Each structure stands twice: as C-alpha cells, then as structure tokens.
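**User:** You know discrete backbone vocabularies at least as well as I do. Would you mind producing a protein record, from residues through to fold? Write it directly below this note and I will take it from there.

**Assistant:**
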Amino acid sequence: MRLSEDVIGYFKKMAEETGVLYQSLINLYLRDCVSQHRKIDISWQDKSQVS
C-alpha cells in the first residue's frame, strides 16, 4: 500500500497522542469506512495530476 508522507505523518502524530500504533490507527480508520459503507468522492481530482 502506498501512502503519502503527509498521511503517514498525520497518523504518526495521532499515534503519539493516543499511544496506539499508527498502522493500527490507519486500519481502524479504514475499518470504520468499511463498516459505515463510506464512498470517496474523487470527482474534484484534476485528471492531469493523477499518476
């Protein structure tokens, strides 16, 4: 899984505050998205910026 450094940094900071490993926080967040059937809206993304 490829995650940008700013995303990892966000979860690492949260890990420091909560005492939960950042990988576990990412998994918990994604699990919540699955359980809530969240859908991402990527229509705002400029197609020229996608790699």
About this structure: Residues 27 and 33 are 10 Å apart (CA to CA).
